[in-house]
Design goal:
0% strand; mainly alpha; 345 residues
């Protein structure tokens, strides 16, 4: 229990659990954002986050969230213009990611642009509330990451960072078009039908689409979609256990146990680690979004899972239709040599 690997597993489970419990006790809605952010931070940053990184993360997430609120206020009376502006911003973010820009800023701009304006069409108050939870969730995630490193300070030996070769402008444009072809229709459908309960699906789908990479193959991209759905399915176990004895103590133990299970696999750092991070996010999103509902929890779980399934099916279908049959010709030679038919984004 006192080895670097044990500390890494315990740090992950402890941080995610503590974030989830605090979000529940503070009655944040939605409560899953803080643990999802904590999961992403602890799974991807192999050291205690420096103060500069923590402040930057919190500011980027908060600014992106309130950008969505500003868009909702500005174009609430013209939904068609709102959709066009949101689609343009998402496309620009996807293009920046494909060109090798650091992921933090574009990722959260895309998430907030996809989800918050849709809420604003139904209720500006709800949009402001969710934007506030985004900002508070980011700050809580960084604080819990620090606390987790303080309690479990031992780290695994550093691994060699994978070399990232940005796509050329032509290949980046192709990647951005693929991403917007998936996200654009989903956002449009949710805006047209006012499916505010589909916000968890948008968050999960954006986190998958922003990792699509021509260099690593269509098969692994599809596996990420499947992993996201399987994580949502696994949340029914937590819901059943919580239903046997609904209490804060039981909730804490359930989340801690699931955090340990995911953490043992994610901490290995192998190609499956990224898949399991996606599955863990899907589990936290579906479980957290099902906890508080006026109707039965199982009915809400089925609805959330149906949204996840349909969004995943659409994503896989679009990738099958427009994913390039071969690597773009203008991809750098280094990238083409590194590309494999299967791999993990």
């Amino acid at each position: 229990m006192d080895t670097p690997h044990s500390h890494t597993v315990l740090r992950f489970a402890f941080g995610v659990t503590l974030s989830f419990v605090v979000a529940e006790m503070m009655e944040w809605n939605p409560p899953y954002l803080a643990p999802v952010f904590t999961c992403v931070v602890l799974a991807n940053i192999p050291v205690r986050p420096p103060l500069k990184v923590a402040l930057g993360f919190s500011l980027v997430v908060g600014a992106s969230a309130f950008l969505g609120v500003i868009l909702a206020y500005a174009f609430r009376g013209a939904p068609h213009i709102l959709f066009g502006v949101c689609a343009l911003i998402m496309f620009r973010g996807l293009y920046s990611l494909a060109r090798g820009t650091p992921k933090l800023g574009p990722l959260f701009i895309i998430i907030c642009t996809a989800a918050i304006p849709m809420l604003g069409l139904q209720s500006l108050v709800a949009a402001e509330m969710v934007a506030g939870v985004f900002a508070k969730g980011a700050m809580l995630a960084m604080f819990m990451a620090w606390v987790s490193w303080l309690v479990f300070p031992k780290a695994l030996p550093p691994r060699a960072a994978a070399e990232v070769v940005p796509l050329t402008p032509g290949a980046a444009l192709q990647a951005a078009l693929l991403g917007i072809a998936i996200l654009g229709p989903l956002v449009l459908v949710y805006q047209l039908f006012g499916l505010t309960s589909a916000v968890p699906v948008l968050v999960g789908t954006v986190m998958i689409v922003t990792t699509l990479d021509f260099q690593l193959g269509q098969k692994q991209a599809m596996l990420r979609v499947v992993a996201n759905f399987c994580g949502g399915v696994s949340s029914v176990i937590a819901l059943v256990l919580l239903g046997i004895h609904p209490s804060l103590a039981a909730f804490t133990l359930i989340v801690l146990a699931s955090g340990l299970l995911f953490g043992m696999k994610i901490s290995r750092g192998d190609p499956m680690a990224q898949m399991l991070t996606v599955a863990c996010n899907g589990y936290l999103i579906v479980f957290g979004s099902t906890l508080h509902s006026e109707s039965g929890a199982f009915d809400v779980w089925l609805t959330r899972l149906a949204y996840f399934f349909l969004a995943g099916l659409f994503t896989i279908g679009m990738m099958a239709l427009i994913w390039p049959r071969q690597l773009p010709k203008d991809m750098p030679e280094e990238s083409a040599k590194a590309a494999t038919p299967v791999g993990s984004p």
